[in-house]
Design a protein that fits this description.
about 450 residues; Growth Hormone, Chain: A; 21 helices; globular; transmembrane transporter activity; MFS transporter; transmembrane helix; MFS_sugar_transport-like; transmembrane
């Protein structure tokens, strides 16, 4: 029988590379849309709308995709528990890349009228379904291959794929802003990063074809446990409170993180008619740099969580994240480029420390037979509760109040909720993940649970 102890070091390295690179490619596609929504789509796809309403609707299309993440998570969890983690990863890669490439070819409102934004929303929904299925399968492939003392570090691989995706999308947009400045960027420059996705999909396919299936899934297949009761049904039948609390932990991270990954800061800080009015290229460069520091602290969180535990890392991270979230808009509103850089980099410290260990923590929460469903669905629900409409809510709060104070309160509140929910969960670092320990995996999740 295959176990994690029998997986070679070479195979583990291959899995880590494949999940990191593949996740980075998929999130490049996802974050690219979010950034362009606030910079371009609010103008070229939502022509009849005026002023702040166009931006709100553009950010609404960012959030709409999150509503379809649970569908992707249900499908990916179901087939990930029955057909394997690797199979799901290949399907989501092609779905995400295909939708992104088609967005790059989509006519604007001036050419196609109302069909342009409708088609844009349809493609964004496909991205949402794909994103809902991608993450859970990627992290399980990494964590279930890892030695138990290094799960946080291995799980941080696909986690850093997310800031790498932001780094790539921001960097390519910055380059295109230089290559095609001003009106040229609005006319055709924004399309090039979307069209590049087809080449990235080819890279992702190549690296993912070279890895083996998760050893835990292979154990399940050998024992015929993949034919058990519907995984999603069993998940909610037995673990609904756990799913909700764990989802809110991620929501505490996602609400704050989507100020940049959702494109809001890029739009707010570079709006020539707004209170800040910084150059679009300068703002994109600042976000690119912050994506790099986010990646570093995400990797550090995975590493340190193997030493001090997932829960402790979360609690420290949420405190730092709350401080940075409170200072974010006061610093951005100074219209000082140096302070914008400082605000975004400070934010990444907390974001990294509430993100890098998430793969390992989620994998250690659920029994092997329903783990793919548990991880995927919990993550998708957290995305809806947290990041889904955070940019739209921020835009609406500013439009309604005329200031960013309400946005700051909103972000700090999310950090507090995340801290409380992380506090309620017991530390489960190092718990066995194999099918031989389902009873242990299925119990003792909360600090008030009986031993």
């Amino acid at each position: 029988m295959t176990t994690t102890t029998s997986v070679s070091r070479r195979e583990r390295r291959k899995v880590l590379a494949a999940t990191t690179i593949g996740t980075a490619i998929e999130w490049y596609d996802y974050f690219l849309y979010a950034a362009v929504a606030g910079l371009v789509f609010n103008k070229v796809m939502f022509g009849p709308l005026e002023g702040g309403l166009a931006s709100i609707i553009a950010f609404l299309t960012v959030g709409i995709s999150f509503l379809f993440r649970p569908l992707g998570a249900f499908l990916a969890g179901h087939y990930g528990d029955r057909l394997g983690r690797r199979f799901v990863l290949m399907v989501t890669l092609f779905a995400m890349g295909g939708a992104t490439t088609l967005i790059g070819l989509l006519p604007t409102y001036d050419t196609l009228g109302y069909f342009a934004p409708l088609l844009l929303i349809l493609l964004r929904i496909i991205q949402g379904i794909s994103a809902g299925g991608e993450w859970g399968s990627a992290v399980l492939l990494a964590v279930e291959h890892a030695p138990k003392e290094k799960r946080g570090m291995f799980g941080a691989g696909p986690q850093i794929g997310v800031p790498i995706g932001l780094l790539l999308s921001s960097a390519v947009l910055s380059i295109m802003n230089w290559v095609a400045p001003g009106d040229a960027f609005m006319e055709w420059g924004w399309r090039v990063p979307f069209l590049l996705s087809i080449a990235l999909v080819a890279v992702g396919y190549f690296v993912r074809m070279g890895v083996d299936e998760s050893p835990v899934f292979e154990e399940m297949a050998e024992r015929k446990e993949v034919e058990a009761e519907n995984p999603a049904k069993l998940l909610f039948k037995r673990f609904t409170p756990l799913v909700i609390v764990a989802a809110l932990v991620f929501a505490g991270n996602g609400t704050v993180g989507y100020m940049t990954t959702g494109g809001y800061i890029q739009s707010y800080a570079s709006n020539p008619d707004g209170p800040v009015g910084l150059a679009r290229g300068d703002v994109l460069n600042a976000v690119t740099l912050s994506a790099f520091t986010w990646m570093l602290f995400t990797l550090f969180a995975g590493f340190i969580s193997d030493k001090i535990g997932r829960r402790t890392t979360y609690l420290i991270g949420f405190v730092l994240q709350a401080i940075a979230a409170a200072a974010l808009f006061p610093l951005v509103n100074t219209a000082n480029l140096g302070l914008l850089h400082f605000a975004l980099i400070a934010l990444t410290v907390g974001l990294g420390l509430t993100y890098g260990q998430q793969s390992a923590m989620y994998a250690e929460l659920f029994p092997a037979s329903i783990r793919a469903s548990g991880v995927s669905i919990t993550y998708a629900l957290g995305s809806v509760l947290g990041g889904a409409f955070a940019p739209m809510i921020a835009a609406a709060l500013v439009e309604a109040t005329g200031s960013t104070t309400a946005v700051s309160i909103y972000l700090v509140s999310a950090c507090v909720i995340g801290f409380i929910c992380a506090f309620l969960l017991k530390e489960r670092k190092g718990i066995p993940l194999s099918t031989d320990h389902e009873d242990e995996q299925a119990s003792n999740h909360f600090i008030f649970s009986k031993n």
